[in-house]
Amino acid sequence: MNLFLQLLVTGIVIGSIYALLALGFTLIYKATDVVNFAQGELLLVGAYICLHTTVTYRVPFFAAFALTLAFTFLMGFLIEKIFLRRMIGEPIIAIIMLTIGLSSVMRSLVIIVWGTDTRTFPEVFSQVPVVIFGLSISRVYLYSIFAVAIFLGLFSLFFKKSKIGVAMRAVACDQQAALSMGIDVKRIFALSWAIAAVVSAVGGIFLGNINGINTSLAHFGLKVFPVVILGGLDSIAGAIVGGLIIGILENLAGGYLDPLIGGGAKELFPFIIMVLVLMIKPYGLFGTVKVEKV
User: Which of 28, 32, 155, 189 is the most exposed place for a label (fewest CB within 10 A)?
Assistant: First the structure.
């Protein structure tokens, strides 16, 4: 039972970070119809920027965290403005290839600047675990869950209550109608990329505190696809639910199946789920079913 609970807690932590990444992916897709293959590299850059600011310039972690969010917000805004905006009206495959190219460029820049060795954050959170109902839980896990829950809550309020959030939802629903209402659609596109970069950076920073940072961190971007396929490509609620489900199932598979088959189940399981969902429910749990009449 202790093993199950430990795997469950770890799955919730990792799943909540998946949910953040999927939220950024879904925002870009809903607003621009672009599938962003650079999500993992946005996470990687954010983690390294925060680590570099903390270690090299000796900035306190929480100040470095805030500076990183500001930097990644600007980075996402500029990526859309400089690269993606020029692709408006172009074939979707060309835009997808552009995001793949951006991911390769960002990863290469990270390797050039910081190398490939695993780096760790200075001790930010106490190493003394918290014991809850007899279960020993690392403090960084608890802080990660708490911080991610706050960010998801803030973004939910932002989309429902703020003027910009409502405008983003309008653009996601119907770009032409949003234009006719006077909404600056190009500005919304840029904000979508900026917010996606911010949530990716948050995920990267907490993953870096848990596992350390190297270029393999970008592989978490690939886990976004099973999450959004399960939850629904255009569903924000689906991104959150899908992230938690994938995180929990992935860790349970790693804990129970890996010892039996010699490893690999944890990495493979999310993609098995993705294939099954595509076969049974192609639009995911909360995705919008599109029916074309001819």
Answer: 155
